[in-house]
Amino acid sequence: MDKNNNEISPEDSDSNFDDKDLVKKPPIPYPKSVIFIIGNEFCERFSFYGMRTILILYLMNRLSYGENSATMAFHVFAMACYFTPLAGAVLADSFLGKYWTILIISCLYVAGSIVIALSSISGSTLFSMLGLALIAIGTGGIKPCVAAFGGDQFIRGQEQQLQRFFSFFYIAINSGSLISTFLTPILREDVGCLGRSDCYPLAFGIPAILMIVSLAFFVIGRFWYGYRVVPPQKQNVILTVGKCVYHALTGKFSSMAPKREHWLDHADLYHNHQTILEVKTLMRILFLYISLPIFWALFDQQSSRWTLQAIRLNGDFGFYTIKPDQIQVINPILIVAFIPFFENVIYPIFNRIGLNKPLRRMVIGGIFASLSFAACGILQTQIEKELPPTMAKGTNHLMLITENSKIMNMSIFDEFNSNIEFEQNPLKIYASIPRVKLNDKFIVPYDKNITLKNDKTLVIYLEKNNQSPLIFVMDNVLSKPIGSGAQMFTIFNLKNFHNETFSSTDTNDDVIIDSIIQNFTINTIGKLKTFEIEVKGKSSSMSVGEARSNYKLGQGTAYVQLITGDMEHADKINFQLIQLIESNKISVLWQIIQYVLITAAEIMFSVTGLEFSYSQAPKSMKSVIQAAWLLNVTIGNLLVAIIADVQLFPKQSMEFFFFAILMLVDIIIFAVQAYFYVPYQGKNTTQHYDSEPFDDNANGHRSRVWSMVSAEGELPKLNPVILDENEYDHNATWTSGSRM
């Protein structure tokens, strides 16, 4: 009898007690090979984000792209990075398997990293684009494979170890991103190499080395401990969905097709009822995805338009200068800080007021994304107020320079007096004078060989020993430098000049003579090519021969440098620096507001959206959801590339406000879509569509889908933390090495 006084038959006794039950099962050994997978992911993310952080400035400063062209090229690259995962997923699931897909495509990734590092030495556009293409194939091809391959190393009974693995995996992603985003701008700007004050070969070279180490980690893991390898499926689910949709459409538009309740029912000749039902569910989710690309169009501009905005802001704090591309480090820092804050503070508040539902959180996230670009647009309007006047077509600036004289006796226009007074400096500038007047007053009477073009400045230089002025042309002197440094326009008037070398510290441009305006036996007057000096929080120096002068320059300003004296007396050479436009006054720290808003939007929109999609999709369709999610990112980057190429807006602030309004309209449309969304009620899914995303297994266990966000605002193929029978592949094999 048992403790409840019920009789127990011998048969019952034999069935309830087994010698095997008395033996405690040994613990399943932890798959130590995942240490190498985590190391692989850290190095790869370091490599990718290190390269991506400095890419927009490389395109401008080294390949001489304009702001719009660089933005377009950057987002075409980003678009490719999120399109190629489709090919990687098909290769891994249907042909090569995850292991060989990661190994082969990582080799292309390494090749691309090396190519762009080497091409940055000479600034080759062709090889730079080749390197970026290989990197896009590499990072995209392995993106859907690495996290899933790490999950394959665990078997049933290791649910807690799997959850810890994903925690460490995403810590590796965020730490790799954070460190590289902070470090590579320092390598780019603060280290000089190959005769330049910056060092793109080093800034690209370190990520290339990390990518080599990443590949080495992955290979060593196979031979040291061995990997559990799940063979590829015979049929890829993405291809199955594509065939189902194709057969449904061809059947629907066939002249012999009978009426069906749903257009996908026309595929029933080729696919079973369960497959069609799951594809219907997938289509409902994809209908919600129509509005998602706009969010990614905004989000990925952190590394392009926002970095270009930082160029026009002041990052000099005396003890340290924040680089324009370095400010991006705020995003991964905020991600790490915001995740526990939202889980423990924000979401409980949302729960009390009825907002803690996935689709509602996504709507709020979209509103925050819109607000981030509104804040960005407001900041840009303040920047534009400080910009110098734009030179209109058909006009040119006029710059008057005189030596040792407070009055220039010259009639410029009929309405001006003939005597022009110079007060504190020997220079005056008149902006946007009609070119016809300049030709009539100066070029025709003095030098008919001079030709004025757009974006040029006519210079009238009156030397103290010369009664007639010298006339020559320089670049637009009232223009901001391309980078965040200081632009230098140099005129020299030197006695006993014998082609001594001009040089400057902290510049990547050639400091060479552009033209000799007047060459006498004793005096030589000329000008140098315009060059930019990087402002690094310290003094920069200018020299000619043995003469040298030190300057403390401001970010984003322009100067005219007058060098006069006798080269036989180097200590008496005079370097006079005259500031033409104001330096950047607005602190780069104002960008923190927009970064806070976009990071909050990322957590509520991106993370919640992918979790919701996984909770609603049938298990067989989760890889299709991954592909569709990444395709949204692709379309968003394509939109930015098109807008940058077309140049719809005369001011950058107008473009930022356009995206803010576009996101607001888009999220309203999404809210309407969400209202009419029909939830999936599959045989294994009991939760309501607007509840927290959980997975329920056959044994009634419930596990929350792991929700740590990566630094890139996306989640690879998610795995529930309960491994049921369907998720355990009995055909998995082990590569070389031993499981310890």
UniProtKB/TrEMBL annotation:
CDD domains: MFS_SLC15A1_2_like
Superkingdom of this protein's organism: Eukaryota
GO biological-process terms attached to the record: oligopeptide transport; protein transport
GO cellular component: membrane
Main location: membrane
Membrane topology, record value: Multi-pass membrane protein
GO terms assigned for molecular function: transmembrane transporter activity
Homology family: Belongs to the major facilitator superfamily. Proton-dependent oligopeptide transporter (POT/PTR) (TC 2.A.17) family.
Protein name: Oligopeptide transporter 1
